Amino acid sequence: MKExxxxxxxxxxxxxxxxxxxxxxxxxxxKLRTTDMEPILFIERxxxxxxRMHGADMGCGAGRYTLRLAKQLGKKCHLLYCVxxxxxxxxxxxxxxxxxxxxxxxxxxxxxxxxxxxxDSLDFVVSFNAxxxxxxxxxxxxxxxxxxxxxxxxxxxxxxxxxARNVWGMHFPNFxxxxxxxxxxDELEHMIENTPNLSLKSIRYFEYERTSTxxxxxxxxKEYHYSTFRLFSKKEFDRSIEIFKxxxxxxxxxxxxxxxxQNILLVIES
Length: 270
Ligand SMILES: C[S@@+](CC[C@H](N)C(=O)[O-])C[C@H]1O[C@@H](n2cnc3c(N)ncnc32)[C@H](O)[C@@H]1O
Hints:
The chain is α/β, with parallel strands linked by helices. It has helices at residues 2-25, 29-32, 38-46, 64-73, 87-99, 136-146, 160-164, 167-171, 175-178, 185-193, 214-222, 234-251, and strands at 53-58, 77-84, 105-109, 122-128, 147-157, 199-212, 257-269. The relative contact order is 0.14.
């Protein structure tokens, strides 16, 4: 009993810490992260036969992918629901959409596990870089509920092993040990298989050549561009960033740090 109480308390504190993180970083989030067009173009091709669609982006954040998707789909998307549990992120998204003259969207301040949308009402659901923050099984059940028959859920994420191969996983001490939320492919496959009415249709791997400077990388980590950095104590973070700087200086020209980022996109059919 004692163990369970401790676990529950820790888990609630953990979720609050991450919520505070997203509230704090919301105004800077889009500038701190790198956004790629490839998954958007892939999704557009997958949806090329449909028209006047209703869709949702779950865990849309400040809308960097949502906006690109809305623009790319154009009139083929009649209404795009932007779902996030952080109102700070949603304020950023709203301003961003207005600045870009996009108005076929609706904001839903909601938990991705229980969305105020009707059963069998959507033609597609997307989620970018967010499922490791969700209770994946409940999210899949909810996506299955709101999707129409024979429509698709697109999950874009990075696997635990892909995370270990990026510049942080390779050179920032304890980055991969702290990031316990990401999945491996077999875990995702298993959860999809166990969700009634969902099946994995295809998997697409993405790889991006990156170039940056040590100064920019240091700035991103200190601004917590990945929530993983919030999971370090100040002492641990200070120690790790010093070792990271030393590792990068020893292995690269600090003005030309290169690595590959990898992601995966799951196409799931309802
Ligand atoms: C890493 S950010 C990604 C945001 C955006 N998809 C992107 O790629 O820029 C994760 C987002 O998921 C949201 N989030 C986390 N847990 C959630 C939940 N249970 N329901 C809805 N949104 C959630 C956070 O508030 C945050 O905006």
